[in-house]
Write a sequence for this structure.
């Protein structure tokens, strides 16, 4: 019996240290020894608070997993965007010649690059791009890039944290 009350006092001290004391438990520790109601209330309050802490920890874990998943999604889109910009530069540099494309086929390929670029930009969805990033991609010149200038600029914006608003 004494052990049980000692445990109640230790638990009460823990509740007090953590700032979890409810008004009915804000008593002198000596009152706990001879009061079964306080004894039960202390353990009940402690269990309730531990359960709340566990629920909060679980929610925080789920939020972190969601954040990591979202980051991973955007990292994938960023990689695909940079790969596309590299492909555009490679095609416009010498790729169209190696493919024996005439001016009409070249324009058609550039139109396809533009559509693919727009599709990738739309995948960013809720994550808004900065004015600099939008200006970079809202130009017809991006699909005609032949030296990797746009890929380099996009990489720079991403590395400096200037890609998203």
């Amino acid at each position: 019996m004494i052990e049980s009350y000692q445990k109640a006092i230790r638990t009460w001290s823990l509740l007090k240290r953590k700032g979890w004391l409810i008004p009915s438990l804000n008593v002198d520790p000596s009152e706990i020894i001879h009061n079964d109601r306080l004894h039960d209330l202390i353990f009940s309050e402690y269990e309730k608070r531990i359960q709340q802490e566990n629920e909060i920890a679980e929610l925080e874990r789920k939020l972190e997993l969601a954040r990591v998943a979202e980051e991973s999604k955007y990292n994938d889109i960023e990689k695909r965007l940079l790969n596309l910009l590299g492909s555009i530069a490679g095609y416009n540099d010498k790729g169209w010649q190696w493919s024996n494309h005439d001016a009409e086929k070249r324009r058609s390929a550039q139109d396809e690059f533009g559509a693919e670029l727009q599709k990738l930009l739309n995948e960013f969805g809720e994550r808004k791009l900065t004015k600099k990033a939008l200006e970079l991609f809202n130009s017809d010149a991006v699909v005609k890039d032949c030296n990797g200038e746009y890929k380099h600029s996009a990489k720079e914006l991403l590395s400096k944290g200037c890609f998203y608003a």
Observations:
- Helices lie at 2-17, 29-33, 36-98, 103-123, 131-137, 149-159.
- Residues 36-98 form the longest helix (63 residues).
- The chain has six helices and no strands.
